[in-house]
Write a structure and sequence with these properties.
There is one protein chain. With 278 residues, the chain is mainly alpha-helical. The protein has two domains: 39 residues; 232 residues, no CATH class. Helices cover 65% and strands 5% of the residues. It contains 13 helices and three strands. It has a three-stranded mixed β-sheet. A hairpin with a 3-residue loop joins strand 2 and strand 3. Helix 1 packs across helix 7, helix 5 crosses helix 10 and helix 9 packs across helix 12. The chain starts with a helix and ends in a 5-residue tail after the last helix.
């Protein structure tokens, strides 16, 4: 009888241990499922804006804003007008010219758009400027950078970020997300994201009253540029080839946009506001 009691105790302990192990494994599975569900959710707007502001601050740490208030205000006026043609006109859109000879443009979640001084110097009119800004706006509208953070090994980070409160300003999860988000700019987005930004950007710029061929003209300029030019290195590394982008736009646009053109005063304004070219 005592032996049976001892055996029963051992059996009970073994079963309880298995139950505990099963509970641990089950909880782990639930946690993984919860993380996956959170990681596929959209980041709410306050988080999106805070994340974008942190990334923008990091980008400005590498290249500050151009010290020219008049030109900065001009680009902001053009950008704000174009942003009003989008489905998110109430975002705190901000536009800035980076003091950099590189030829590039960037968007951060929440509505901050940067264009480099090097690219601005290459533009010929306001329609080209509007086309570039509209392209970058689409990355914000379609949340391309947020989607990139939600892929692969960054899923846990995205899920934690969605589940976090932003009341605590010293938020380590947000800090990690800002760091990961900043690193995206060295690798670039998916090609399909860039193609989508081209397509939608042309529609938005046209809706704002600009020549729809402004962005294609910029792509033609890039295509004709020397691929060995160091100022284009990051642009060519992080974007599809301009020729490929132009080919896709040609198929989509055809002659359907031929009836649209920019008002003459837009180009006059551009020539008046732009700093003297070198």
């Amino acid at each position: 009888m005592p032996n049976r009691a001892i055996l029963f105790c051992y059996l009970a302990l073994a079963l309880s241990g298995q139950a505990y192990a099963f509970e641990l494994n089950f909880n782990k599975v639930l946690d993984v499922v919860k993380k996956a569900q959170q990681a596929t959710q959209s980041l709410d707007e306050p988080h999106e804006i805070e994340l974008g502001n942190g990334i923008a601050a990091n980008l400005l740490g590498a290249a500050p804003l151009l010290d020219n208030n008049e030109v900065q205000q001009y680009v902001n006026k053009v950008g704000r007008w174009v942003s009003l043609q989008t489905e998110r006109p109430d975002l705190p859109w901000k536009f800035g010219i980076m003091q950099s000879s590189d030829i590039n443009a960037f968007a951060t979640p929440g509505g901050t758009i940067f264009i480099t001084g090097g690219l601005l110097q290459k533009l010929n009119n306001e329609s080209e400027l509007a086309g570039v800004l509209a392209h970058e706006m689409v990355h914000v509208l379609r949340k391309h950078h947020l989607a990139a953070l939600q892929k692969g090994a960054r899923m846990d980070l995205a899920a934690d970020l969605i589940g976090e409160s932003i009341k605590n300003k010293a938020n380590p999860v947000m800090e990690k997300a800002i760091k990961a988000g900043t690193e995206l700019y060295a690798r670039g987005l998916d090609k399909d994201d860039e193609f989508e930004a081209d397509r939608m950007g042309i529609v938005i710029a046209t809706r704002a009253g600009y020549d729809p061929y402004g962005l294609p003209a910029v792509l033609q300029m890039l295509d004709a540029s020397n691929a060995q030019d160091s100022s284009l290195a990051l642009m060519f590394k992080t974007h599809p080839a301009p020729r490929d982008r132009l080919a896709l736009l040609d198929k989509i646009m055809g002659n359907r946009f031929d009836a649209y053109s920019a008002p003459a005063q837009a180009d006059e304004r551009f020539n008046r506001e732009m700093p003297r070219r070198k």
